[in-house]
Amino acid sequence: MNEPDFVRTTRASYDTIADGYAELVRGELAAKPLERALLAAFAELVHTESRGPVADVGCGTGRVTAHLHELGVPVFGIDLSPGMIAVARREHPGLRFEVGSMLALDLPDGEAGGVLAWYSTTHVPDDRLPGTFAEFHRVLAPGGHLLLAFQVGDDVLHLTEAVGHTVDLDFRRRAPEHVARLLDGAGFVTRSRTWRERDLDGPFPERTAQAFVLARKPPAAA
């Protein structure tokens, strides 16, 4: 099966920067209280309204996977990049991490109690996003929750260098309302849309505002 070009370039780029990226983002979540609060709410919803483990899709180095684990969530990570998965396994040896693509998840229908895509859909082109959301819907159990994080905007940032290495990465910024409409079209019910202004101070300054959309796959009919 032929892979789209963006899949190959994204995988190769993250394989190249995996170790440097792990150092770059180390401690970032500890500096972001709103993000921690949203993840805590997601964890509580998974505990009370969902069944099955959470799939952290595009988990990278596993930092958010580990955070959910610390909140008591049964969770595992999936990432396109073998290099990132190697770092995740090294830094969080007690957790499960697998190489895989969000375009075609190697999971049975309805297995996941929750899906987290923490800034990982940013590399997916617009025409592939509805199919990606349909795949998230497929693997979620009825009543399961999806939490997305992404950058706000209507442009594409192309990077050719990151943490001292050559890369070929596109970061697509999106409007929360547009993402919510696509989720509704994939069969989800949007439960919340949150966005905040970009952080300008501190150790992790940002280029754009940040958005977080929580959605749910409808429960099975009684």
Q: What is Rg?
A: 16 Å
Question: What's the rounded overall pLDDT mean?
Answer: 95
How much of the sequence is in beta strands?
A: 25-35%
- SSE order, one letter for each helix or strand: HHEHEHEEHEEEHEE
Number of helices: 6
Specify the structural class: alpha/beta
**Main β-sheet description:** 7 strands, mixed
CA-based shape: globular
Spatial strand arrangement across the major sheet: 3-2-1-4-5-9-8
* Parts with pLDDT < 50 across at least 5 consecutive residues: none
User: What's the helical proportion of residues?
Assistant: 25-40%
Count of individual beta strands: 9
Task: Walk me through this protein's architecture.
By secondary structure, the protein is of the alpha/beta class. It has six helices and nine strands, in the order H-H-E-H-E-H-E-E-H-E-E-E-H-E-E. The strands form two sheets. Strands 3-2-1-4-5-9-8 form a seven-stranded mixed β-sheet, sandwiched between helices. Strands 6-7 form a two-stranded antiparallel sheet. Strand 1, helix 3 and strand 2 form a beta-alpha-beta unit. Helix 1 (5-25) runs parallel beside helix 4 (82-91). The N and C termini lie far apart (40 Å). The model has no long low-confidence stretch (mean pLDDT 95).
Key terms for this structure?
222 residues, alpha/beta, 35% helix, 9 strands
